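Continuing the series of single-chain predictions for the mutant panel. This is the parent chain; the variants come on the following pages.
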Amino acid sequence: MTGMPAPFHAFSLQHWITLAIGALALAALVVAGKRGGNSRRIATGVLAFANLTVYPLGVAAWRSLGEPLALDKFVPLHLCDLAAIIAGFALLTRCRLLCTLTYFWGLAATSQALLTPALTVAFPSPPFVVFFVQHFAVVGAALYLVLVDGWRPLPPLWRGPGEAFGWGLVYLGMVMCVNRVLGSNFGFATHPPDNPSLLDHLGPWPWYLVSSLGIAIVLFLLLALPFRRAGER
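Parent structure:
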């Protein structure tokens, strides 16, 4: 390419239009899934395919810009990269743990990335398209598992949030070790992203990590509330 595309600006008209298009696409997949039969198989396949292929497509998209790629563009160790892989296999296998992580990580974390994208280039650049496809695919898988497949977290109420939080701690510990060795910023565990994000308002490192964990467990518990048994209300 002859030059870098225009920069992306959060909360611009382009951003809002993209969110609206993505929401409509997810709604269409859920409606198709609830129709059952072949429509459901196609909708499930589309979501699974999107989640499992989007990372290599993202690498190709960034390479198409003709610029040297940072390590985090080659290795799928950001939380949303792992969440996409987990979501794809959750849709195909219905593994309980994978479904749990997809639901809680997808709706509590990946949805935040849609609102404050760690993205530097605007439409119609390939990285822009792949970024939003990836994050909508994860959120879509989380909703699809509940609304179409009928997945529910196992009781008691705290079990699902506890599993999601525990594996989140494992992930954070892993990427902090990787970042220390490689000088990378996977999981934004070394510093917040360059674009504006929620992390900018949670204090300096390492306190924003502690604040993020606190917000995460609150969100996980809130996401579990719709599944309370009648006797627990």
